[in-house]
Design a protein that fits this description.
The protein is built from eleven helices and eight strands. The protein is an alpha/beta fold.
Length: about 250
Amino acid sequence: MKKTRINNLKERLIFALDATGDLAGTLSWVVRLKDHVGMFKVGKETFTRYGPEIVARITGEGGKVFLDLKFHDIPQTVARAAEAAVELGVAMFNMHALGGRKMLREAISSAFRRAEELQISKPVILAVTVLTSLNSADLEALGFCSSVEELVLHLAKLAQDEGASGVVASPQDIAAIREACGRDFVIVTPGIRGKMGLTGDDQKRTLTASEAVRLGADYLVVGRPIRLAADPVAEADAIAREMSGSR
């Protein structure tokens, strides 16, 4: 699946929507930022707390959803979950590449087939390579013999072979993935931080927005730097400007 050319910088900015304790409070971020970001990431915490309603409410406000549930199970289970994601109307969702070739292939095929049946746009389907909270020492402790860089490239190419639209990958892996997988392979990058970083940050492999875009990222996922800013709207706009090379 070739990526569509993205001209508007804000469309390339995804806000990580975290649960705030009540649905109204969480949705207030959608209302505040919907004209300043291109998509809202709904992750495990938010989806578990609010369920499919949060997706419906975001799309009802005119927002797009990246469903970040990182599906990882037997092929049939993930295929059915992928179909359900399509039925929710999400613009993007993901699954773990470590689920293997058959899982990826069956889920992607099922999702695209369901989109055709519903006569809606096919979602961007991403494979998660290695979490940005993990480094090579963590992988060694888990029993992997490969470095982070080697495993990321292997999983990215495997996902591409099975029809994934792209990957979720650390900003530090962008250049290698772009070289290995080509210009049409979508790269969505979390772990975006300002130059000052964040206190108590659990992300280990990060870059700034301008650095990630310069290396070839298509979409940037940003949460805490916007959410914790004194003026979140101004910070979102500033990040979009930084993506163009002018802060």
